[in-house]
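User: Hi! I'm a student and our assignment asks us to look at how structure tokens line up with a sequence. Could you show me two examples?

Assistant: Happy to help. In each example below, the sequence comes first and the structure tokens follow. Example one:
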Amino acid sequence: MAKRKFKLTEAERKELLGAERLCKDGATRTRYPAVGLYGEGDPEKEIERITGCNRTSLLEGCRADREDHAQGRVDKRVGGNRAKLSTLPIEELQNTLQPYMPQARLGRKASTAAGQFWTVEDLVVLVRERYAVEYQSRTSYSSLLRLCGFSYQKTEKIFYLQATTCQVWSPTGQTPIVRADPGRAKTNFSGTLNLQTGQEIAMRSDLMNAEVSAQYLEMNLEANPELPILLLWDRAPGHRGKPIDPVLEENPRLEISFFPPASPDLNPQEQVWKAVRKVVSHNHLEVRLPELADRFLNHLNSTAFKSSFLDRYGYSAICPRFN
């Protein structure tokens, strides 16, 4: 029996896997794993049983692979993001990503404060600055991360400091770990978003009750002297009570309107909490809660948060007519 000459190197196997992930054509996508198994020495009948790729298609794939090992592996359609993907030096990009955290490569441009794990937002910045390439879809950046040996994983916890976790891109086989505190230490934040300017007024407190809410209302009044204020509030228990009544009586320019019960989707402040958690507290590296809380509060008070709330309900179109 003739000795099989067709073999794949480790680098060629990785390239073949990347081409399979990018391919949208079903028949071509089936051929890639068949060629890979053939290159590893598997019998033709076993390959057909596993992949469904017949001998003719298998040998055609191997021939195309050997004629041009790059073009034989990719979907032949051209243009758009797919053409850009094929022009990037994947191995160079992989060496740029895998040994380093985003903080080391991007500094303050990293999408999260800790800069510990790569995100699509980080890759957008890196690819644009290094290769002058931009893609129209987040899917293209996800494909690049997979080509570079990353997979989308949920972080594990080791008890150290309480942390929220989210899925992140990490080298395949290396599950990221975030330390978390088994204790019950916590802190609270009150926040109000100015729907016209995007500025946030935030306050940190150890408790969340009517007394704290009254103090927070006073803070809002001081931050907006002389101006009428319409405060849209959720129905948290601490947003009602006797300590709040005197503040409203002494300040008729402050009016409170409550959202319907169980409707966080209507409250634009919920999007602020989500955005700040993503930047500051998801998968964080802080070892003490006070430092983490300070970072959270500073980000709230120093960042402008865009909201479509006013446009959604016609304010921007109607109110200027009455000015």
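Example two works the same way, sequence first and then tokens:
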Amino acid sequence: MSCDLNGSEFEDQGSPTVAGDDIETPVTDEPWEIQEYRAAIGLNSEYYLRCWGLLEDPQPSGAGFNLGACVLSGLWLPFRKMFRITLLYYALVLAWAFFEELVLIRIWNMELPGWSFSLIRLTPPAICGLMANRWYYHHIQRLIEVAQAEEPDQEMRLTLLQQRGGVSLLAAGSMVLLFSIMVGIALMIIELCAPTL
């Protein structure tokens, strides 16, 4: 229950919303630019808008470090629907693992200290954590630019951005499954090549 200025009680219906696939974005008095960003970001839009300095009270750190992207880098990237960066990240991690196992260990018989391999293995997630908010900002900007070119109607553009942006657990799970298959294939190749070395 809420009260109007006269003290009469009435049922609060909430703010009107624009329907989308996953998330409903409240219609506000915000500029269209911010509404487009919110529609494209979806979940946790306030955090990203503050990181990118698009709100009146931005975070002082600029884009900052994204702990979630660091800890769950292989999952966070596809969760935020950044598929090109996800595939590049997976390819680089696989290429390094392939090089490490096949070349360094099996061909050159290198025995590097354990801490050096740990440091090398932590580098990609650390880079992902440092760069994630910047990558995501550019990804969202591209989504908005394409939507603006395709759809002149602002309301329809918000719906389009909600469909193309946001988050996807299905995409994250599918990409992790793809990565697991790629790792399995890489391990089979290493095992096939190992006896001949």
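Here is something you could point out in your write-up. Residues 186 and 192 are 10 Å apart (CA to CA).
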